[in-house]
Amino acid sequence: MNRRALTIFSAVVVGAMLLLSAWAWFQLPADARVPIHWGPDGQVDGYADKTIGLLLLPLTTLGVAALLWVIPVIEPRRANFEKSGKAYGAIWVAVVLMLAAIDVVAVAAALGGTGPTVSADACSWSRGSSSSSSACSGPHRRSCSSSSSEGSS
Prior knowledge:
Shape: elongated
Structural class: mainly alpha
Distance between the termini: 53 Å
Helix content: 55-70%
Number of domains: 2
Strand content: 5-15%
C-alpha cells in the first residue's frame, strides 16, 4: 500500500468531482434540485438544493479519503495491517471510484438525464424507463422472463 499514491489518486478524483460540480453549477437553474438518495427500487426519493447537492458527494469523498489515510496511522496492530496493504489499497480505490460514479449519476440526473436505475431485482435494471417491458430487455432477459413467469403462477 503506497499511501502517497493513494492520496494523490484521491485528490485527483475529488478535484475532478469538484470541477464537475462547478460546471454543473452554471448549467443548472438557481432553484434546481439535485438527487441525493435513491430508494430500494432504484428511483430517486431524496433531493437537496443545488449547493448541498453538488457539494455533498465531493466533500464526502474527501472525508472518506482522509479517514482511509488516517486509519493506518492510528491502527494499534500496524504489522498486521501492513500485511493486508494491497487489499486496503484496492478497497480505498474502489470506494473513491464508487463515490465518484454516484456523483456523476447524481449530476447527470440533476441536469435532466435519466441514467440507470438499479435495484436488488436484476429485472429492474433499465435505462431511464419504468415500463416493465423494457425492464427485462437487457442482458438478463431470459432470467427475468423465467423469474417473472414463475412468480405469476
